[in-house]
Amino acid sequence: MHEELLLLDQLELNFNSQGLFVLNLVLAFVMFGVALEIKPHHFKEVFKKPKSAIIGFFSQFIMLPALTFLFSMLISDFITVGVALGMIMVASCPGGNISNFISHLAKGNTALSVSLTGISSLGAIILTPINFAFYGNMFINYAEKHSDLVQPLTIDPVQMFITVFIILGIPLIAGLQFSRYFPAFTQKIIKPIKTFSILAFIGFIAVAFSNNFTHFIKHFEWVTLIVFFHNLIALTSGFYLAKFTGLKQINWRTVSIETGIQNSGLALVLIFNPKIFPPELEVGAMAYIAAWWGIWHIIAGLTMAYFWRKTPISFNSQ
């Protein structure tokens, strides 16, 4: 298994600078669309009743990266540093753009989902670089002492901060200002923009998948297993954290979805950024994990939404 994953680390995906540029544009457009849905009353509700938002934020940015690091340590004898860093990168990113849609399908708290998406996207500007640098460097230091699968790698949180701010921060600010000054026009375009942005992101992932189909098939077994358990940890930890901290049942679903639907597109942007990871570094495994997450979390999220939609919610339970 070591040998197969070493080959995965050395994998060169069919993804060039033009593809990265398109992905940057798609993500920026997605975040602009997300911002159009965020209204001042969402934040007011968070400040009035902050518990749900605090639990959701904690689940995403504190608990999931820590659990991911522990999971990476647990299976460290069977994975390379690249695979571990791919998981840590995904766990360090904010919730994915499709989480609001899935939360709505699952009859979760859509308003909380939108609020968490906005808060986590803004928080990611600081916390994504910090979490990845912290847990990534810890795993590298551990692996250097216990494994022969380490490649030289340094993590630059400053460059990550710059990239995340450009991809998330600027479109969010622009979207918030646009909806503020053009509220009537925003209401007309918000639904088609959201639909288009989701389809554009799924389309990009589909094209990237088809361009690297042979690579995915060759390493499908191990990566699918790793991503499956990692995503399962994210979904279940969010669900039970919300349950055991006394949130209403409708919020159990939302926190679970927000924790288990990660912005894997942002992870790919960071992984393929030559200023963060120079071309001579082998980032194939990291990119493979993030790309498969982009496909799998949609499948897992829609599956859970299907079953939850058929399950009654007790609105009085705490």
From TrEMBL:
Keywords: Membrane, Transmembrane, Transmembrane helix. InterPro entries: BilAc:Na_symport/Acr3, Bilac:Na_transpt, Na+/solute_symporter_sf. Its main location: membrane. Pfam families: SBF. The chain crosses the membrane at residues 20-40, 52-75, 81-102, 114-138, 158-176, 196-216, 222-242, 254-273, 285-308. GO terms for cellular component: membrane. It is found in: Membrane. The keyword Mitochondrion does not apply. It is a multi-pass membrane protein. PANTHER family: P3 PROTEIN-RELATED, SODIUM-BILE ACID COTRANSPORTER. This is Bile acid transporter. It comes from Salinivirga cyanobacteriivorans.
